[in-house]
C-alpha cells in the first residue's frame, strides 16, 4: 500500500512539474526522463528503440506506460546489489525512480539541488555518507532530455525520516565542487522551484541572446579560454549542443536558399553568427525516408542456387536514383530526383548563372569590410574606420544602437538574398521592390546616420543596380531568344524527329548545328 | 539476441577507489595509447549490384513492446551490469556515393544490423555472430565479415530511450553501451534477409542531419564516416 502511494506521489509530482513547465519543454524538448516519455513525446523517442517492436504492432497505439514497469515487484535484496558495489544501504544509482518501488516499506524523500552539472551520483553518495547517513536508497537525477545533461538537482530516497532531517541540516555545510547544496522538502513546490531555477539558467533562447550580446556567437557551455578565467557554471547551467541553435526565423527563410553577397555577410559578427550557425543542411527538415533504394529480395532456389534477377532489377524501384532515365525523358536542367527535396535548400549557389555579376559587386567594395564586423579585439584605427570609432564614442545607448544595427543588417541581407533569388527566377520587379523597401526601412531607422548603415544601403544600391542591369540584359536576351525560338519551331514542325531541347537556351550556334543536322 | 545466461560475474563498476567520477570517456575499454596509427584510412566499397539478397525465416524480436524491452534491460542490468551492444555499419556505393545498409521495420523505422553481446563475449566475435544471425547466408557457405574499425560509441544513461554519444558528466553507471563497427564487405557476396525485415541502402545525404527520420545514431553516421577515404570499386 505504502509502495503504491509512493509511486503515485512520484508519478504525480513528475506529471505536475511537467505541466507547469510546458513552455520550457517546448523550448528545450526537455522533460523528466521518467515521466512516461512514451506517451508524451513518442515522436521524439529514439526511433531505433521504437523500431524494436514487432512490425505488426501499430505504432500509434499508446504504449504501455513506464509506471506499469515500475510496479513490477522485485525483492529488495536484488535491487540493493544491482551494481555490485557495496554501500551500506545498497544504493542502486539507477538515476530513475523505478527502483524506489523495489524497496518495500516506507521511504522518505527530499530534493537535493544547486549541484553543478558534473556532480556525479558518487559525489553525492560520498557527501551524504559523510553526513553520517547510511540509508540512502536511491538517487534520481533530473536531466535535460535533449543532451542528457544533469539539471543540477536530484531526488534522494532514504529509509528513515531522520536521514532526511540530517541531510537537510548538514548537507548545505558541505560544498560539492564549490557549490553549496540545497535540500528541499519532497513536494511539488520544491520541484517546481528547482525546475524553474534550472530552466532559468537553461532557457536556450535567452542564453543565446545573452551569449551573442556578450561575445558574438559563443555557444553556451563553451569555455572561453584566456578570458577572465573559467567560471564554474551555476546550478545546472546546462547548455545545449550547438546543433540545436537555429538562426532566427526570418533569417532562416531568407538566408538558406542562397548566400547573400559576401559584402553583406561581413556585416557584423552578430548577424554573421546568426546566419552561419544555422544547420547546414537544415531546411531539408523532417523528410520522409523515401530515398533509399529498396532492395528487392531475390529468392533462393532450392539447392542453394540464387536466382540472379540481373543487376538492374536489384535496384528495382529505385529508378528514381538514376537521373535522366526517368519516365519524363531527359531532365538535364533538373537536379536528380533524389536530390530534389534537399538540393536547392542546401545552401548551394543558385544553379544558373545570372547572379554572378550581382554577387561580384558588393564584394568588390572594399569599405564594406571595414564598416562593420570587426573581430573582437581587432586592432582598429579609428581614423580609417570612422564607423567603429563612433560606436566607441557613444557608449550611452551602444546596446540599443547595436540592436537596431543588427536589425538593419538582417533586413539588408535577407532583402539581398531574396532579391537575388527573385531575380534568378526572373522576377525582377519583385526583386527591385524588395530592395527599395529595405533601403527605405534602413534609411528610416534611428541609426541611419551610422556609417555602417550607409554601407548597408550602398550594398543594397549595388544589388539594385545590378538587378536593373540584369533585367535590361534579360529583356534583350528574351527578344533574341524569341526570335530564335520561332525559327526552331519552324524546323520542328517540318521535321518532328528533333529531340526536344528542354529549356536549354538556344543560342545561335545550337541552331546552326541543328540546321546542319537537319540538312 | 539475449544477453546470455552463462557466467555470473558482475562488473564492479568503473570507478577507481576514492574516485567519484569516471576516468575516461569509454570506461569499458582499457586506455591504449598507440603512436603508430595512420593518419588516413581508406576503405574499399563495392556497388550494391555486386551483392545478392535472398530471404530466410523471420526473426522474432526478443521484446514485444518498448516497455518490455526496458524491463528486460533493467532485469539484465541487475544480473550482469551494463548491456553491451554492437551495431554494424555496412556500406556499399552507388553513383559514387556511399550508401549505408539499414534494416527497415514497418514503414518508418530503421536500424543498423546489430544486437546485444552475450555476457563476456568480445565485440568482434559478437558482431560476426550477430551479423550471421541477421544477414548470414543459409546455403551452407560462410559469410566473410571483416571488422574494419570502430566508428562510434553511444551510451544509454538510464533505463530510458535516450542515448548520447558520450556519458553525461554526472553519470557513472550507464545502462547500455552501443558500439558502432565499420564492417568491410567482400567484393561480392550473398545475404539472406529475414522475411520480417527489409534491407535498404540509404545514401549519406539522406541520413545527414535527418534525425527525425532515422534517430540520432544513424543520422550522425555521415559525420562519423567522413574520416574514411572510401574507394569506389567495381
TrEMBL record, chain A:
Location of region: Disordered: 314-357, 468-500
GO molecular function, one term: mRNA binding
Composition bias type Basic residues, residue spans: 486-495
Pfam families (alphabetical): RSLD_CPSF6
Entries under Gene3D superfamilies matching the protein: 3.30.70.330
Biased composition (Pro residues): 347-357
Superkingdom, natural source: Eukaryota
Keywords on record: mRNA processing, Nucleus
Family: Belongs to the RRM CPSF6/7 family.
Species, as recorded: Pristionchus pacificus
Biased composition (Gly residues): 316-329
Gene Ontology CC annotations of this record: mRNA cleavage and polyadenylation specificity factor complex
Any single GO BP term: mRNA alternative polyadenylation
Subcellular location: Nucleus
Entry protein name: Cfim-2
Automatic annotation (TrEMBL), chain B:
GO biological process, one term: mRNA processing
GO cellular component terms, semicolon-separated: cytoplasm; mRNA cleavage factor complex
Domain of life: Eukaryota
Matches recorded under InterPro entries: Cleav_polyA_spec_factor_su5
Any Pfam family the entry gives: NUDIX_2
Principal location: nucleus
Keyword RNA-binding attributed: yes
Localization of this protein: Nucleus; Cytoplasm
The entry's keywords: Cytoplasm, mRNA processing, Nucleus, RNA-binding
One function term, GO molecular function aspect: identical protein binding
Subunit (UniProt): Homodimer (via N- and C-terminus); binds RNA as homodimer. Component of the cleavage factor Im (CFIm) complex.
Family: Belongs to the Nudix hydrolase family. CPSF5 subfamily.
Job description of the protein: Component of the cleavage factor Im (CFIm) complex that functions as an activator of the pre-mRNA 3'-end cleavage and polyadenylation processing required for the maturation of pre-mRNA into functional mRNAs. CFIm contributes to the recruitment of multiprotein complexes on specific sequences on the pre-mRNA 3'-end, so called cleavage and polyadenylation signals (pA signals). Most pre-mRNAs contain multiple pA signals, resulting in alternative cleavage and polyadenylation (APA) producing mRNAs with variable 3'-end formation.
Name of the protein this chain belongs to: Cleavage and polyadenylation specificity factor subunit 5
Species, as recorded: Pristionchus pacificus (Parasitic nematode worm)
